[in-house]
Amino acid sequence: MDDTLMLLTAAVVALLVGLAAGWAVQAAAARRKLTREQSFFGLPDGSECVLVTHRDNATAHWSIPRHDALALLGLAGVIESCGAHPEVAPHDTGLQGFGARTEFCVGDPTAHRRLGAHVANLLPGVSVHPGDESGAGRGTFTIGGTAYRMEPGAVEYVLLARLTAGEGERPVFLAAGQRPVTHRAAVRHLVRNRGALARKYRSGGQFCLLLKVVNSQAYGPDVVELVADVTKAALSPAAAKGHRAAA
Predict the structure, then answer these.
(1) What is d(CA 209, CA 212) in angstroms, rounded to the nearest whole number?
(2) Does the pLDDT at position 27 exceed 60?
(3) Residues 151-198 pLDDT 10s
(4) Strand intervals (E) in the chain
(5) Under CATH, what is the fold of the domain 46-235?
(6) Could you tell me the superkingdom of the organism this chain comes from (predicted)?
(7) To 10 degrees, what angle do helices 180-192 and 194-201 make?
(8) Which of 49, 76, 99, 112 is the most exposed place for a label (fewest CB within 10 A)?
């Protein structure tokens, strides 16, 4: 009986030790994941960030367009998990320079004042066509000599970028798209793939990805393809020249 009791006690102790070790390993992995995400987004505990978006001109009071609002909701979960505090600001409100706090800038660079300035200053190899008098060609990206024109509802493009510049060390994230649905698609891509992006580019890495939203008329922001990592071309001032159209 004593031997049986000792065996049962040893088994219980071993089980408890195993459970404690497993919990410790999982907790350590969760802490590493959170630390990596906080570093990637520039959002340590208690930090502040700003989300800059369009105004909805269809209403008398300031409100956020539907797709942009849904994009910001997608970012809200990440910001909360990092323990940071967000501020939402319209694009045409005077804001401080960048780098002091993480910034998420979401919208159409031809209409979003701050986003347009970021693209011009931080991505000199990207040009965004403002459109002619009839609006034709509006939003077309030219990168590395290739023009990316949208076919509304069928093929639309969006740039997703993480850039580090300015007076501080906090990154600026850009979701610069040709239509509102593409902004949401880019943010969704960022949130879903944040682990892989953090591992690939790490806390100090800059990137600019060209994404294609396919058949948004039927699928909304759900079907997204990575066209290319255009970081090198986008950061090169001479890369925007050219007129070759994308296939």
Answers:
(1) 10
(2) no
(3) 999 999 999 999 987 666 789 999 999 998 999 999 999 999 999 998
(4) 48-53, 85-90, 102-107, 126-128, 141-143, 146-148, 155-163, 172-177, 207-214, 224-229, 244-245
(5) Chitobiase; domain 2 (3.30.379)
(6) Bacteria
(7) 70
(8) 76
